[in-house]
C-alpha cells in the first residue's frame, strides 16, 4: 500500500469494522465508496454491531480483480463515545488500520492517498440527513 491506500487485492480480503464495546443507544453508521476493477464504482453503507466485526466491503469476486477504497465515513450517532476499529482481513491475517475513541456526533474520515483524518464533528446538514434516514 502506498500514500494511505486501502486495497482489497484477493478473493479472501475484506474491510471490517467493529466497536470496542456496546453502544448506549445507536450503532455507528458507515458509508464507503470504492473502485472495483471488475464492476467499476461501488458504494455500500450499513451499521456496526457492537463488538462483532461487520464487513464494510467484501472481497473482490475473484483474482486478479481488486477493490480500491476511495472514501470511507463512520458517523458516531450514539449518545456516548465509541471506540471505532477498522481492519483489513486477508484470510486469517488481520491488520488494524484505525482504532480510536470518537465522541458522539463525530466522524472518522478516510480518503484515498490522504489516509485517516482526525475525528470531525458531524455537520448540521449531515445530522439532519442521518435523522431523516433513521440513523
How many discrete domains? Answer: 1
Strand content: over 45%
Give a short account of the largest sheet: 7 strands, antiparallel
Determine the structural class based on helices, strands and strand pairing: mainly beta
Helix content: under 10%
The pLDDT mean sits at 87
Alpha carbon gap, first and last residue: 33 Å
Rg of Cα set = 15 Å
Flag low-confidence runs: none
Helical segment count:
1
Strand segment tally:
11
Overall, the morphology is globular
Order of helices and strands: EEEEEEEEEEEH
Comma- or semicolon-separated keywords:
single chain; 135 residues; mainly beta; 7-stranded antiparallel beta sheet; 4-stranded antiparallel beta sheet
Write the layout of secondary structure elements.
Layout: E1 6-8, E2 13-19, E3 29-36, E4 40-47, E5 54-57, E6 67-75, E7 82-90, E8 93-102, E9 106-111, E10 115-116, E11 120-121, H1 124-133
Antiparallel strand pairs: 1-6, 2-5, 2-7, 3-4, 3-6, 6-9, 7-8, 9-10, 9-11
Amino acid at each position: 500500500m502506498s500514500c494511505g491506500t486501502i486495497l482489497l487485492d484477493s478473493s479472501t480480503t475484506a474491510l471490517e469494522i467493529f466497536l470496542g464495546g456496546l453502544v448506549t443507544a445507536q450503532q455507528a453508521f458507515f458509508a464507503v465508496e470504492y473502485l472495483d476493477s471488475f464492476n467499476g464504482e461501488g458504494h455500500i453503507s450499513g451499521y456496526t454491531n457492537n463488538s462483532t466485526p461487520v464487513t464494510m466491503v467484501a472481497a473482490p469476486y475473484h483474482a486478479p480483480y481488486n477493490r480500491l477504497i476511495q472514501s470511507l465515513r463512520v458517523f458516531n450517532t450514539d449518545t456516548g463515545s465509541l471506540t471505532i476499529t477498522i481492519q483489513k482481513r486477508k484470510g486469517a491475517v488481520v491488520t488494524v488500520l484505525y482504532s480510536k475513541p470518537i465522541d458522539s456526533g463525530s466522524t472518522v474520515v478516510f480518503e484515498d492517498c490522504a489516509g485517516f483524518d482526525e475525528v470531525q464533528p458531524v455537520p448540521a446538514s449531515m445530522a439532519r440527513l442521518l435523522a431523516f434516514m433513521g440513523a
